[in-house]
TrEMBL record:
<dbReference type="Pfam" id="PF10294">
    <property type="entry name" value="Methyltransf_16"/>
</dbReference>
<dbReference type="GO" id="GO:0005634">
    <property type="term" value="C:nucleus"/>
</dbReference>
<dbReference type="InterPro" id="IPR019410">
    <property type="entry name" value="Methyltransf_16"/>
</dbReference>
<comment type="similarity">
    <text>Belongs to the methyltransferase superfamily. METTL18 family.</text>
</comment>
<keyword id="KW-0808">Transferase</keyword>
<keyword id="KW-0539">Nucleus</keyword>
<dbReference type="GO" id="GO:0018064">
    <property type="term" value="F:protein-L-histidine N-tele-methyltransferase activity"/>
</dbReference>
<dbReference type="GO" id="GO:0032259">
    <property type="term" value="P:methylation"/>
</dbReference>
<dbReference type="GO" id="GO:0005737">
    <property type="term" value="C:cytoplasm"/>
</dbReference>
<feature type="region of interest" description="Disordered">
    <location>
        <begin position="1"/>
        <end position="35"/>
    </location>
</feature>
<dbReference type="InterPro" id="IPR029063">
    <property type="entry name" value="SAM-dependent_MTases_sf"/>
</dbReference>
<keyword id="KW-0963">Cytoplasm</keyword>
<keyword id="KW-0949">S-adenosyl-L-methionine</keyword>
<keyword id="KW-0489">Methyltransferase</keyword>
<protein>
    <recommendedName>
        <fullName>protein-histidine N-methyltransferase</fullName>
        <ecNumber>2.1.1.85</ecNumber>
    </recommendedName>
</protein>
Length: 294
């Protein structure tokens, strides 16, 4: 079965502003069958010997006077990956590109694109005080929110994405381009959220609880809500907070900010409130969640 979500975007009038804003195609033969989890693992990197790409094709983002970031162009990266796919192993990311899909559940979760709610979240935290904070970005893709946190003085940033290929080809190059001096304060994890706690427990991170958790465009699939809430509970410090940037409603799957807030309420471990909203066009919000006080 295949289906497509087409979200209108009146703002995106040039590539420099938004790379991808809401068209998601998915393919899945049997949506009701149980799927095997991709084990979460930490990417072990020799940061001292990693250097930025030479003459990369990038997109610049100016969030405010002190927060400017660049990202490897996903469109340019797609071209390179497609050109190299004929004589190499077909990976989930290459399969998605060949089939022109932005989402293949349990294989590729759209991490190569830069989604508009990631831009919203980066703009929002660019005006926050983050110096000395430990930060985790869940479902990071290009990693713009986490990179902004690093540039604003975060002590540690964990970048997590479902696909290891997204981390190596997009997230990691972006870290080296934007935060080369801070690169050794970064930790990268791939795989399913269900096994992320175990991977973090066996990782090189001495700090296993975080002041701030960031996540954008990760609540479109209601089936993953409990996993995500469990990750929040595992990673968040007692007095920390979570920022969740998403659309009010994802057509075709039923997820969205209201439904996720309802799931948080039913779970009972967190309280939540809307701290930012964009009402015109396709409604988008940022939710702030914290542990419920006992």
């Amino acid at each position: 079965m295949s289906f497509c979500f087409n979200f209108p975007n009146p703002e995106a009038d040039n590539e420099n502003q938004y790379e991808k804003t809401g068209s998601i195609s998915t393919e899945k033969e049997s949506p009701d069958q149980d799927e095997e989890e991709i084990p979460a693992i930490e990417m072990k990197l020799d940061w001292k010997h990693l250097t930025p790409c030479k003459n990369p094709n990038t997109i610049a983002y100016d969030f405010n006077e002190t927060s400017t970031l660049v990202s490897i162009s996903p469109k340019h990266l797609e071209i390179i990956l497609k050109e190299n796919s004929e004589n190499s192993e077909i990976t989930p990311l290459k399969e998605a590109l060949q089939n022109q899909c932005d989402l293949i559940p349990n294989k590729y979760e759209g991490g190569l694109q830069i989604w508009e709610c990631s831009i919203d979240l980066t703009k929002y935290i660019s005006n926050q005080m983050l110096s000395g904070s430990s930060v985790a970005e869940i479902g990071c893709g290009a990693g713009l929110p986490g990179l902004c946190a690093l540039k604003k003085g975060a002590s540690t940033v964990l970048f997590q994405d479902f696909n290891s290929e997204v981390l190596t080809k997009l997230t990691l190059p972006n870290i080296l381009l934007n935060c080369y001096e801070e690169r050794e304060r970064c930790y990268l994890f791939s795989g399913d959220w269900g096994s992320l706690p175990q991977a973090v427990n066996h990782s090189t991170i001495s700090l296993q609880k975080f002041d701030i958790i960031l996540t954008a465009e990760t609540i479109y699939n209601t089936k993953n809500y409990q996993k995500l809430i469990n990750i929040f509970d595992f990673l968040l410090k007692e007095n920390g907070y979570i920022l969740i940037a998403a659309k009010n409603y994802y057509f075709g799957v039923g997820g969205g900010t209201r439904q996720f807030e309802e799931s948080l309420k039913e779970d009972g471990r967190f309280t939540s409130s809307v701290c930012w909203t964009k009402a015109d066009g396709l409604s988008r919000e940022i939710i702030c969640a914290q542990r419920k006080k006992t």
